Sequence to fold (229 residues):
Amino acid sequence: MMNLMNMMNTWRNEEEDEVEDDDEEEQSEKKRKRKIDHSENDVLLVVKMLLDTIFGDTKLKWKSGEKTTDATKRARIVGQLLSRGTSCSNLMGRRSDLVLYNKSNVVLCLSELKDGNSESNSIKQEAKSLRCSKSLLSYNKPFSQKDIWSLDWNGFSGYTYYLKSYNDVTVVLPGRSLSIPLVKDSIDDFEDTLIALYEFKEHMLEYDHSLSQEFTASMSDELKVYHSP
Fold:
């Protein structure tokens, strides 16, 4: 949390320096014209640091690096067999930017991030995220009837959502909006994001607790994680 507070103080100081250097009219014009393009890696570093801080008192761990999971691999195999009937020996699961594991290396959440600079990329990310979360819901369903929660980021704005099964239909429901401040004027709103993320953590802890111990023990050895080349 200290790293996060230091970063927020840096944002405050940078904004104050700009106000001192420019008169009010120039500063207003500068804000209208200024557009900072952050890379996906920039977003990932900040978001992971925030999540690591919030989950720091649990045994749940976030891992990054475009990881794949057995849940999404199985979904792709089923889709391949139904559509083409061809060999699936070389198929891998879909890669996810952030993956939440419990202490036995069982996947609890798959999350996607984009830099927020392209609307089309953001739409593709949302579709991919839903497919991955649905795969995870189906994969873990025999061992837990609880809803699957996830969160996605588009730049430094994001949201939580959850999937639930209803009469064999998967329904997507909204959670809370998220926003990481980049200027001091937005810092007051950050409290709502922190509350939403702590609520999200409670959902993850409840979901982890709901998984049967047999499933957790067996998956500890069987779950494989593949790093992208």
About this structure: Residues 36-67+96-222 form a domain with the tt1808, chain A fold (CATH 3.90.1570).
